[in-house]
Amino acid sequence: MSTSRPEEPERTSDAAPAEQYAPPPAPDAAQSLGAALGGAAQRLGIDPSSGASTGHIVWSAMGGWRGVLESVLPSAAFLIIYTLRPEPLWLSLVVSVGLAAVFSVIRLLQRSPAASALGGLVAVAVAAGLALWTGRGQDNFVPGFFTNAAYGTVLLVSALVGWALIGLAAGFLMGDVRGWRTDKRKRRAFFWITIAWAALFYARLGVQLPLYFSGNVQALGTLKLVMGLPLFAPMVAVTWLLVRALYPPKQDADTRQE
Hints:
single chain, UCP010219, membrane
């Protein structure tokens, strides 16, 4: 007597192939870096798709009145007190750190992220600690030299290797992470604006380092202030206008096509 083999259940047509359940591909380095840079720009209020005015964007990038005061007051206080009374050195340094501490406390009370609230205080405290250790007022500016050198070098290298950081940030914000590199106009524009940013940081070094080595603390402090926000703001404006020109709002683009 023959036994019949049980019939195998038929596969339903709606059974999805295994490929459908494969995890999405991991983002590549360009996407990750662009996301990080674009996210940082958005936290500063810089978003080309927002349609905000140039003045509003520049003001947001500087952090508004609080950002301006946080950037200027600690350095200005050190410069004024040091000019009026160079000795004892700790007096001007303590006032500078104290002002930075006040701003940090205000940010913490307003529940700002700890990193942004304490970042400025840490930078001012490290600079002041170095100056106290060496006993030289000009060493209060040394950490800024390393910061400018690092920013300038990273921007310069990114432009020279064809992955300009400004392009990566703008490309991410505009949904064009890689497309800008295949457009000669965009690639050239992002190359030169990134070079311009690098030149700003190197210009600070070129002007301020000779004053540091000559021990001219008053001139060094003055030029640090002059080459800070007064040069940063126009660069933000130029960068913003450039990105808006390369990626015009959809309504403007449709008007031009008509």
